[in-house]
Amino acid sequence: MILSRQKIVGWVLIAVSGAYLVYFWRVRLMTSGAPLAAKEWFNIITCVALLMIGTINVRLAARRQRRLDGEAGER
User: FRET partner for 23 with CA separation of 20 to 30 A, picked from 8, 15, 64, 71?
Assistant: First the structure.
């Protein structure tokens, strides 16, 4: 099984943003400390956006693969 570049990029985006969100949850939200700064809010919003983009990439790569498999089967 060969993974497409789009699927690999999607999984990397999902893994990196998911890891940061888990880290942020454990370190910043589950402990007492200073209120969240503007930079931290920006990082959270960016990570959620990257998580959505990564998911879209993986789903589109799967759709493309199904389409190519269907075209190959018709020939």
Answer: 8
Distance CA(21)–CA(23), nearest Å, equals 5
Nearest to 3 by CA among 50, 57, 46: 57
Q: How far is CA 10 from CA 18, 21, 32, 60, 75, in A?
A: 12, 16, 34, 10, 30
Instruction: Calculate helix-pair angle for 5-24, 38-74, nearest 10 degrees.
Output: 150
Q: Please state the pTM of the whole predicted model.
A: 0.83
How many separate domains does the chain show? 1
Question: How does pLDDT run across 2-57, given as a tens digit for each residue?
Answer: 678 999 999 999 999 999 999 999 998 888 888 889 999 999 999 999 999 999 99
